[in-house]
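Q: I'm writing a short explainer about Chitobiase/beta-hexosaminidase C-terminal domain-containing protein for a general audience and would like to include a description of its predicted shape. Could you first generate the structure from this sequence?
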Amino acid sequence: MTENQRIIPILENVLIVLHGIVLILTIGQNFISLPVFLEVVGRMHPLLLHFPIVLLFLTGLLFWYPNWLGIQTKSALRFLFLASLVLTGLTVLAGLFLSAEGGYEEDLLFPHQWTGLGVFWTGTLWYFFWTKNKIQAAKFSSLFALALVLVAGHLGANITHGSDYLLAPLAKLEEKPEVPLEEALAFDHVIKPILEQKCISCHGPNKKKGELRLDEMEFFLTGGETGPALDNANWEKSLLLHRIFLPMEDEEHMPPKGKIQLTEQEIELLQAWVLDSARFDKKVNQYPQESTFFTLAKGLFDDKDRKTYDFPFADKGTIAKLNNEYRVIQAIYPDSPGLRVSFFGKSQFNSNSLDELSKIREQVVDLNLQNMPLKDADLDKLAKFPNLETLNLNFTGINGFGLSSLTKLEHLQELSLSGNPLSEDAVSHLGKMQNLAELYVWNTQLPASQLTTLSASLPDTRVESGFEDDGRLYQLNAPVIESEKTIFQDKVQVTMKHPIGSVKVFYTLDNSTPDSSNHIVYEGPFFLEKSANLKARAFAQGWLGSPERQTVFLKSGIRPDQISLTYPPSDRYKGKGAETLFDLEKGDIDFSSGNWLGFKDTPFEIELGFADPKEIQNIAFSLLSAEGSYIFPPAKVEIWVADESGNFQVLSSETPEMPTQVRESQLFLKEYPIQKSGVRKVKVRLSPINPIPSWHPGAGQRGWVFVDEILIN
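A: Of course. Here's the predicted structure. Afterward I'll give you a sentence or two in plain language.
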């Protein structure tokens, strides 16, 4: 008897035992508690599964072509057959142990588990038919078993790597709509793609390792078994950052060892996003241009147009010395020697500020001098930056005599001169800059005839001069709203400005949108003496009206003697508790700043008491709406008041109008008249929306209500 012939009966008995164990576990897997050491066996499933896959396909090849590799004896093939099936059974067994740990979506686990069992069972039938010399049945079983191997492998990859793992390379070939930088959201278009590639396979809808999902904002905030992924009280201690910075050998390092790791740039992007309060609804271009996140993110959108330069990198120490509070120097995108220089603060600027850049002249390709007090003679200094491509001279006060110096800049592609009192002589100098791709001369006092001449002399340049009667309209910038403070006691002065002096600024104070039929015309600084939600827009003939600018002003009023919240706010958005509502610190659209109270599972309900009876005219609530972050206006507002008797009576019950689409985050004020004297108590309830409407990505879930101040007058 050969060695194979002695081992075959043993393997057959092992195979029978495995079938029995697998059958018991399959039937009773929801009722069996596994010891810890079997969890270790379960985690060997990804290691084991490669062996039976290879052996089963090799067995199939030799079954159909027995003379291949010279294997001609049935006992040799039988040994290989049984070894394949025993390993398949062990792999199935380990998979059942692993599934008992939990953390997998049933919709994906169920088909993978049963196709894996199908491989084991049909493979055994294949072996049985073959040993009984039922060749046709064996051939059919072999094809079915091997097909199930492919299906089970694909479904397993979906669990481990994501549902689109197999076809992801083909998806890259499809034309995808590109999002311009101006419309890109920090989370949706920069952070989420990183998470989808490196994190979602373990922390997504199909598999929730540690009960943590990272595919949507709502799950970020919910967190997993070890807490939220983000710590809004101390961003640097956020679990998301902690895990990615752990050593690779640490079992808690993310992504786990063996998975594709984050690149250095991806780590920097995640870190910059988290440290900037991890905003989910903020656009990329709303970040300061000098911020780390903006610099890194902008580079992603510039990838297709990135230029390579043959000049060397500037010395990092030199750049560090030149950076200060009024001048920022940074690479135009990561790993580029090209530099962008931006100046801030008129009072700190003089012509020597340009001379100080002499050591990096070769590397400067983008120079922003907007609003700096320049003279035409200073343009000679700009001509010494040989690789300058983009130059912003808006509102610098030059008249154009010095523009002849800029004709020496062979690489200059974009020149902005808006807001300067250009003379007609400037037109002749600009006409010589044939390399320009874009020229901005809005509000430069050049007559239409000169602008026509300029356009004709630069046929390959896009000349933007503001309104032209050619059917095209350009949108104005939003006006700037200025005031010393937004929470005041008696009154506060408000000033509004716009860089184009000829525009009219329309505004409202009642939360309505300023338009042609609903507005107050701004004629100069004015005083506010009561709380208001100020919205302003700029209009001018031949232009599209500007976007809306908004500021909420709150007049501090009566402070209650007793404050009692019926339900505590969310642990993540609890601010300073009830004190947050009367601390006269206005929150902004960063709802994680600590100035907001957030409520989702319970309504915001508060009872306010007064030691002495009060005459109350109205009550106002400072609220936040950010539908992209599941924050909505309250679904219902209820107000009760009580007099000396202590009996509450309903004063107001309103169902505010809900948005019908995701809008940009906005602050707003809800004000309600009370007009009561002898008031001893006020009770308010603001109910979160539940469920979120069907048009929203989070349809069916609970929404949030955010409150930061209550004003009683």
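A: For your explainer, you could say: Residues 135-161 form the longest helix (27 residues).
Q: Perfect, that's easy to follow.
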